[in-house]
Amino acid sequence: MTVSIFDEGGFAPCPTPFNLAAHVLAAGAATPDKIALSVVKPTGAQRWSYDRLIAAVRGTATGLLQHGLVPGDLVVMRLGNTVDFPVAYLGAIAAGVVPVPTSAQLTVPEVARIFDDLAPAAVLHDPAVACPDTEVPVIGLDTLQGWRDLPPVDYHMGDPERLAYVVYTSGTSGHPRAVAHAHRAIWARQMMMRDWYDLRASDRMLHAGAFNWTFTLGTGLMDPWTAGATAMIPADGTDPAQLPLLMKRNDVTLFAAAPGVYRKLLKFPLPPMPKLRHGLAAGEKLSDAIRGQWTAATSTPVFEAYGMSECSTFISSAPDRPTAPGALGRPQTGRRVAIVDDAGMAVPLGESGQIAVHRDDPGLMLGYLNAPDATAEKFRHNRYMTGDLGEMDQAGNIRYLGRSDDMMNAGGYRVSPLEVEAALSDAPGIHDLAVTDIAIKDGVRVIAAFYLAEAELDTDRLDTHARSRLAAYKCPRVWVRLDSLPRNANGKLIRAALRDHIL
């Protein structure tokens, strides 16, 4: 019996001593006059050379140390969608201080819980961003910006296994966890630069996200800088409809965004973008419909990747690694990925199970900070259990089947909502749709489809369309028209919120 394990190709270990920020900025130091960052808008752009970026990062590191922080201290970042965010983030890491990037959209109570959870040594605060009254020392934006002109600090070099930064999970599982990552996490990103982006020093990558989103921070900024390429970010407040024009005007070669952004862009006519090689998508499952519409409109493919806060992206497709239809992609070369049962043991090829990654993966988290029990719960047989379901074929292609806790139970059958959504995505009159199971009485759950449309649609016609695509037990029993689908700040569907919908 062949089991679902992918273990193909080696990967060089992270060198030591090591510093994440030094690694990110090394290529740029060799091309100091090249544009590292361009904050683009229809009326122009704010540009940062590599020389200016590196000086700002290392000066910020000097300021943090002069302020009294020491390597290993935690600093919570309450900064807005500006260049201050990545400069402060890399500046902290350069000094050996541990940044905790947080979304500017968090509320005061949410931030207060983070302070209680971590007991940080300081908070970096833009007054425009919500922050509770606190005894934690506050470093204001004016002070932070003033540090950029200080003499450069020497990078704090050390064990690549030591703590570098902390990010929080989205909280879709109930309680956000503080995910602790080592300096070597950036070293592992070379696997995705090769087997997802096809990233080159000559590239000009536009990421549609905000500076203070971790997807943007990694894919949109640190990876292009590691390669010596040019990163581009839309100015705060840019209308998504303007992004294609910005891509054309700025000779963008790679475009990265969540699938929801692609969906928005396709509502408008797209201008020719002759320099664009391909798009990149992550954050949630990209539908085949959106992928096909984008390719038809731009003559460029979209390559998808799968990852999470705990391990960034480790399954993907790429120009020279096309994936099977309907699959997410294949594990990147050097990854050790398996499809496992609840005990953590690999299942046979073609069978469904949890997607798991080996605990020795260099991109995998150190663990959940201050939560040893939660950390231990996620590891079985030296594998990190993602909680996501998939199945693997003979070539290593992995088909995503949804979250294990998203799986629906309809009459005793387990059904993936993604399968139903894919089958119904082209239903006449429906603009967007999400599916989950809901309780209609004690012990009885049915599949419900929540859809966006110009007007209420005839349920008999919808039922007929569903039955033409799906087995009877997979068809929605309830159809609900909504004005909008519940999504978080990054555009990801909050499926649990649909279950609370009152019919």
List the keywords.
globular; 6-stranded antiparallel β-sheet; alpha/beta; single chain
Question: What is this structure's SSE topology?
Answer:
Blueprint: E1 5-7, H1 20-29, E2 35-41, E3 44-49, H2 50-66, E4 74-78, H3 84-94, E5 98-101, H4 108-118, E6 122-125, E7 138-140, H5 141-146, E8 163-168, E9 178-182, H6 185-188, H7 190-197, E10 204-207, H8 214-227, E11 230-234, H9 243-249, E12 254-257, H10 259-265, E13 278-281, H11 288-298, E14 302-308, E15 312-316, E16 330-331, E17 336-340, E18 353-358, E19 367-368, H12 372-377, E20 379-380, E21 383-392, E22 398-403, E23 408-410, E24 413-415, H13 417-424, E25 432-441, E26 444-452, H14 459-467, E27 478-481, H15 495-499
Parallel strand pairs: 2-11, 4-5, 4-6, 6-7, 10-11, 10-12, 12-13, 13-14, 26-27
Antiparallel strand pairs: 1-17, 2-3, 8-9, 9-19, 14-15, 15-16, 17-18, 18-21, 20-21, 21-22, 23-24, 25-26
Helix pairs in contact: 1-8, 2-3
Q: Helical content, roughly?
A: 25-40%
Shape: globular
The CATH topology of the domain at 406-499: GMP Synthetase, Chain A, domain 3
Output the CATH homologous superfamily of the domain at 406-499.
ANL, C-terminal domain
Strand content: 25-35%
Per CATH, the class of the domain at 406-499 reads Alpha Beta
Oligomeric state of this protein:
single chain
- What's the overall average pLDDT, rounded? 92
Radius of gyration equals 23 Å
Indicate the low-confidence ranges by residue numbers.
none
- Overall CATH architecture of the domain at 406-499: 2-Layer Sandwich
Q: Given the helix and strand composition, which structural class is it?
A: alpha/beta
In this structure, how is the largest beta sheet organized? 9 strands, mixed
Terminal CA distance: 47 Å
Number of helices: 15
Strand order of the largest sheet: 3-2-11-10-12-13-14-15-16
